[in-house]
Amino acid sequence: MIGALPLWALLAVFALAGAVVVAASIKATALADIIADRTRLGEALAGGLILGGATSLSGIVVSVDAAWQGDASFAFANAVGGIAAQTLFLAAADLLHREANLEHAAAEPANLFQAIMLLILLSLALCAVAGPDLAYLGVHPASIVLFLAYIAGVRLSAAVRDDPMWRPVQTSATRTDEPEDADEAAKSALRPAIVFVALVLAMGAAGWVIAQVGGTFIARFGLKSSLVGSLVTAVVTSLPELVTTLVAVRRGALQLAVGGIIGGNTFDTLFLVFSDAAYREGSLYHAVGAGDLYWLGTGMLMTAILLAGLILRQRAGPARIGIESVLLVAVYAMASIYELFG
Q1: Strands (E), 181-331
Q2: 243-275 residue pLDDT tens
Q3: pTM of the model
Q4: Closest Cα to residue 109, out of 157, 170, 50, 172?
Q5: 81: which of 164, 186, 208, 234 fits an S-S bond (Cβ 3.0–4.6 Å)?
Q6: How many other CB atoms are found less than 10 A from the CB of residue 156?
Q7: Which GO terms describe its biological process (predicted)?
Q8: What b-and-e string marks burial along 58-88, b requiring 16 or more CB atoms within 10 Å of the CB?
Q9: Fold category of 2-341 in CATH
Q10: By the 8 A CB rule, do 259 and 111 touch?
Q11: What are the domain boundaries of the chain?
């Protein structure tokens, strides 16, 4: 039904679905912070597990639906393009946090470990593309390994958060992760959790609508699947990460902001697992093109730059943002130009 709509109606539906995703994510950010305090999970881990997974749901729906329809490039580009876009959002958050470089102020060992895990998971996807063309019951063995590696990474991230062997140097600009109200932390997390789940379902439904509109753009106007996936649907379904990151920074929940991006990106690698299972024509990894691989490399490069910034902890750079933020903008801009004109 969506595919038969005229262009103006398609754009209106697309904008409405994006607005639902953004509005739900704003409320979800506040609830994730409350849940983190009441469960004592911690902002960095809550950002990676609760907020990161929830705001990624619409993107999962887009990639899985595209894979089910047989468009491997759309599914793959939406996943890895979203990782690149979400990493870019930290540069915007860095601009918003004027007191010091965001990566300096949000020092947290769990975020360092999750960034490393993200590089490992993306490397597994790259190895799957370059390796033998295998598929058992339509699923590449690398997808199983990637899923198991993600589960192990979550467990290890919790261990790093609870009993870190490394601690950041505390400076006047470092913001520590502490519940803001002891009485608030003693309350039950059940009610905010129920509302949070309802918001997640709304974001998932909006993701399905976005997938249908994106597929229509590809079919009707002859656009490249990698272009629509990496620069249209990936960006729109990543808007919750932008909103939640900026809202978290304004709330002073800096570890939640950085952890939400890195943890969300780590969760987004599972898009490839689910999409590989949904793609019924063989291995998803061997059905993608050079443009999709370029975005995979861009995501890895931007993650490495972010990790370097988290370790360097520069106090301030050009225009009071870290040099890693400047580099993230430059890398993403070059990748976008390549996709548009390459």
Answers
A1: none
A2: 878 877 887 777 777 877 888 899 899 999 999
A3: 0.85
A4: 157
A5: 234
A6: 15
A7: transmembrane transport
A8: bbbbbbbbbbebebbbbbbbbbbbbbbbbbb
A9: A middle domain of Talin 1 (1.20.1420)
A10: yes
A11: 2-341
